Records
---
Amino acid sequence: VKTTKNKIYILVIVIVLVVSLTAGLAYFLYSKNQDRGGLYAVVTVDGEEYERIDLSRVGEPYDRTIETEWGYNILHVENGSISVTDADCTGHDCVEMGTLTSPGYLIVCLPHRMVITIESEGEE
Amino acid sequence: VKTKRLVIIALLTAMALIMFVVEMQLPALVPIPGVKLGLANIITLIALVLIGKRDAGIVLFLRVMLGTLFAGSPSTLIFSAAGGILAYLVMCVMVNPHVQCPLWFVSACSAIAHNAGQLGMSILIVHTPGLLVYAPALVVSGVITGVFTGLAATYTVKVLKHIPFD
């Protein structure tokens, strides 16, 4: 009896895994297809839009510092991509979250309440 | 008996803290905040099975508080607390004589609850529901790390349950 019960639990776990992997993959593919040329990085601080950076016409890569009452984050802007290279927060999660290139994904700096999202033209 | 209880709570808290602090030093494998092993959860599970809900709650509370003091920042406290409380509630519901499910399953569910708590708290703080894109990744990591820590707890409990704790 015990082994059949175990099998049910294993089945539940596998189903949960498959469902979430599928959801993640579907979203990834969906966001890849959202690319409509124009790319903007939207920086939000504490829920309000702070700055909108055009990523589609960047000649020389440059750094942009976002400084708020919670601290600073240094953004590295290149043509079609944006990342955080340095910040004075404790975890440095925002730096480790890597580079954004397509809409639908975001970088978060929780201690500074800052979010970077990517939008493509056509969206508001 | 009172001293014994005190010693056991202190011992378990110390072990959980060591695991927590060591884990903080490990480099992140996946670039998503919140994806981690959750080694300290092994102790919470063991405590729950061996010394009961109340004392396990005390161990968890002390570990979160002291862990923040040693290795975190004030901003990590609310995330640890949100995740910890949810995970603890799930464990309390699932570890009882009426629900006889394996410990690794309890652990996986509580890991998902933990991640859900942290994600929910993050969404509240930055006012960005878009953070939900990380939900699938957090569920997957919760299941994998939860099963792992749950099995670790199972084997430890197997050895420890011969010792009378109360």
Note: Chain A touches chain B through 31 residues (CB under 8 Å).
---
Amino acid sequence: MTDIIAVICKLLAPYNPEHKTLNAETDIPAELNIDSVGVLDFIMEVEDHFDIEIPMNVVSDTRTIGDLATYVQSQLNKA
Amino acid sequence: MVDLLEKHRAIADRFQRMIDMGVNALGVTNDQMISPTRAMVNGREIILAGTNNYMGITFDERCIAAGQKALTEFGTGTTGSRIANGSFALHTELEKEIAKFLNMKHCIVFTTGYQANLGMLSGLAGPKDTIYLDADSHSSIYDGCTLSGAKLVRFRHNDAADLDKRMARDENKEGGKLVVLEGIYSMIGDRAPLSDFVALKKKHDFQLLVDDAHSFGVLGPNGRGLADEAGLEDEVDFVIGTFSKSVGAIGGFGAGNHPLFNTLRYAMRPYMFTASASPASVATSIEALKILAAEPERRQRLWDNSARLFNGFRELGLETGSDIVSPVIAVKMPDELTTIAKWNALFEAGVYVNMAVPPGTPNRLCLLRCSVSAAHSFEEIDGIIAVFKEVVAS
């Protein structure tokens, strides 16, 4: 999980121009002030990095970096 | 008590910042419409370069007469849904006219274009299905997809290889698959490479829907839209369109050849639970369709005007959202504050365009979005270019 969180934080860099500190509890849209389209664009980057599917329906339930990492892990476990 | 509206504070602050810089770009009121391309706003005559009135048909005398006749014969409104008391002979006539125009078997008319996307997408796909939608899809597509309850997967804009990759990841082996494209994309004016996507149909076994909101009446030798232009009409399963652009009215439609297509009437909540389109609007749409079919020179005029504006902007060194000529021509701005300032300056100089900023734009672009009309004269097009030269390119 730690590795996944680290990758997610790296992928979030272009969406974090103020270089806010990121951790598992970071609420991605709220704390980084990313608009709805930006969040979806970021999720595509995560999908492609891990070669998994993250349907849009899941995105609204994955607010924090930790939520997203948990979902990524669950998808990787299926592979 | 939690104040429900407090969550919109950031929007209010952002809006106020725009107001503080000039007029309200999101609330311009046309006090009088002089023609399809000119309006009076606050006592000034403005050239309209952001109306989506592609065929410039809103003041056509035949359409106006048809609307007036419908008002007299059918009244001001239908006061009911299509599945209750709100189906008039005009609605079924319009559905037949559109099916004929598109050379498709079936058509269903909706009260607005937005509802057409909500209705069609939520009627076609359900919770067991998957919808693949282009990342730059219009908000009405996103909303229709959400209403469907289907699994939603975005693919990169106009990238069939990316769709191929995402479909290969699919775990849903039971439900249906729907791929949604647009003819002309509303913000930057490019269009889907249809043949690339059609090539994937055999591999991934999906049904294909094209939203021709901005391309109905505009693309193809018959004005039928993207598939008409690409010569691939047999490969597109469903077409969605609107009457609020080339048709110069309000309303929308879905069309297809599937034998169960009309069953959608009893499965689409945005069709069933709203009042049907007003008689006058339906009647003007019927007349407009006949005109679009009979007068292809309007389409040629639109493309001539589009090329003139596009080339004029390029000669000024302006960066456009798309590299191809299109009736939608968006000029890129560096940031939101510059966009607001330039929009104000254009408006002060007598030209109205659309101000488009994130999240309503792809890739967080800030745009001065123009849309061209067949009704623009060359003098008006040149006037728009001259104002851009003075205000934006300087």
Note: The longest strand of chain B covers residues 177-182.
